[in-house]
Write a structure and sequence with these properties.
337 residues; alpha/beta; TIM Barrel; 2 domains; eight-stranded parallel β-sheet; three-stranded antiparallel β-sheet; 16 helices
C-alpha cells in the first residue's frame, strides 16, 4: 500500500500498515500479536498488570509465531511501580529477542525510561491530556499515543477525558512545535479504514487499535464477550468505576473503565459510592457471571467503536481491510482540496 510509504510510523518499525495492536491485558496474547506482526502491523503483547508467568508465556509465543521483528509489549505503569519483574524479564532477552517497542500507560514512565532505552526498545507513552505530554517527552518517548475517552477499557474519566477528534490535532500541533521527531498515534474509536484515515488526516502517524482487534479470532477475550459485542452498537458502552470495583482492581483517579453497559453495570452505575462501601453482593453476582460465562453480569471490554464491528475475523484480515479502507478513503478525490 504505497500510500503509507511516507508514514513515519511504518518507516520506523518496518510496517506495511500504520497500525499498532493495543496491548490489552488478557486479550492481546501471543497469537494476536504475532498475527498482527505477520500482517504488517506492530504487535504489542498485553503485559498489562505485570503477571510474570502470563507475560513469559504469551511473549514467547509471539516471538515463536511472528517470524518478524515487529513484536513488543505493553504494561500498566502504576502496576510496574509495585512489581516490574515482567518488564525486566522482557528486556533481559538476547538482543534479537528483545521487544521492538515497550508501551507504558497510566503513570510516570520516566523511572523506566533508562532501562528501556538501554535494551534498544522504543518507548511508546500513552497519554489522555495535553498536560501529560511534557512528561512523556522527558521520558524520551519515541511515540506518544493520544487516547480519547471513546476507547474501550481503561482511560481518563468523563470529567477529564478528551475526544479523539480534537485531542489528536491539538497534540499534533504541540509536537510539531516542541518535538517534531516524536511520532503520534491516535487511539479511541478507530476500527475501520475510514477511522484510520481520519486519524492520519488529523495529524497522527498511525493508530493504536484495541477494540477492533479485541474482536478477532486470535484474541484471548472470551467468546461470549465477543458475541455480545457483535450485538451491541456504539450507544451500548459506558465509562465508570463499576467493573474495577467488582474486579477488585484499585485503579487510581482519574482513570476508569469502559465496557458494555450490561444489567449489572446499569444496576450500580449511579450508585458508585454505595458500591465502593459495600461491594460484597455485587461482587458475588459478578464472580458468578464470570464462572458461568453470563455477560449480563460479566464484563465485555470494548469502546464506542463497537458499532463498527460486525464480525470476529482473523487479525490479519482486519489489518488488511483497515489498510485498504484507509487507502481508499485517502485517495478519495473529495478529500483532495
Amino acid at each position: 500500500m504505497t500510500i503509507f510509504s511516507s508514514s513515519r510510523l511504518c518507516a520506523r518499525f518496518g510496517l506495511s500498515t500504520p497500525i499498532v495492536l493495543a496491548p490489552m491485558a488478557l486479550a492481546s496474547g501471543g497469537a494476536l500479536a504475532s498475527a498482527c506482526a505477520r500482517a504488517g502491523a506492530l504487535g504489542l503483547v498485553g503485559g498489562g498488570y505485570g503477571d510474570l508467568a502470563w507475560t513469559q508465556r504469551e511473549y514467547t509465543l509471539a516471538l515463536q509465531a511472528s517470524h518478524t521483528n515487529r513484536i513488543g509489549c505493553g504494561f500498566i505503569t502504576w502496576k510496574l511501580d509495585e512489581d516490574a519483574s515482567a518488564l525486566d524479564w522482557v528486556l533481559d532477552h538476547a538482543p534479537e529477542h528483545r521487544p521492538r517497542a515497550v508501551m507504558l500507560s497510566f503513570g510516570d514512565a520516566r523511572r523506566y525510561a533508562a532501562r528501556i532505552a538501554a535494551s534498544g526498545a522504543a518507548l511508546i507513552c500513552q497519554i489522555q491530556r495535553m498536560e501529560q505530554a511534557p512528561q512523556a517527552l522527558e521520558a524520551g518517548a519515541t511515540a506518544i499515543v493520544a487516547q480519547g475517552a471513546e476507547a474501550g477499557g481503561h482511560g481518563m474519566n468523563a470529567l477529564n477525558g478528551r475526544a479523539t477528534m480534537t485531542f489528536v490535532p491539538e497534540l499534533a500541533d504541540w509536537l510539531a512545535a516542541h518535538s517534531p521527531d516524536t511520532l503520534l498515534l491516535a487511539a479511541g474509536g478507530i476500527a475501520d479504514g475510514r477511522t484510520l484515515a481520519a486519524a492520519m488526516v488529523l495529524g497522527a502517524d498511525g493508530a493504536l487499535v484495541g477494540s477492533r482487534l479485541w474482536a478477532t479470532a486470535e484474541s484471548l477475550a472470551p467468546q461470549g464477550a465477543k458475541e455480545l459485542a457483535l450485538r451491541t452498537d456504539g450507544d451500548g458502552t459506558a465509562r465508570s468505576a463499576v467493573f474495577d470495583i467488582l474486579r477488585r482492581k484499585n485503579w487510581p483517579a482519574p482513570y476508569d473503565f469502559r465496557a458494555i453497559r450490561n444489567p449489572l453495570h446499569r444496576a450500580w452505575e449511579e450508585r458508585i459510592e454505595e458500591l465502593r462501601s459495600d461491594p460484597a453482593a455485587a461482587r458475588e453476582a459478578y464472580d458468578a457471571g464470570i464462572s458461568a460465562g453470563d455477560y449480563t453480569a460479566a464484563h465485555a471490554t470494548v469502546g464506542e467503536c463497537v458499532g463498527l464491528v460486525h464480525d470476529c475475523a482473523g487479525a490479519a484480515d482486519v489489518v488488511r481491510a483497515m489498510g485498504e479502507g484507509a487507502t481508499a478513503a485517502l485517495d478519495n478525490p473529495r478529500l483532495q482540496h
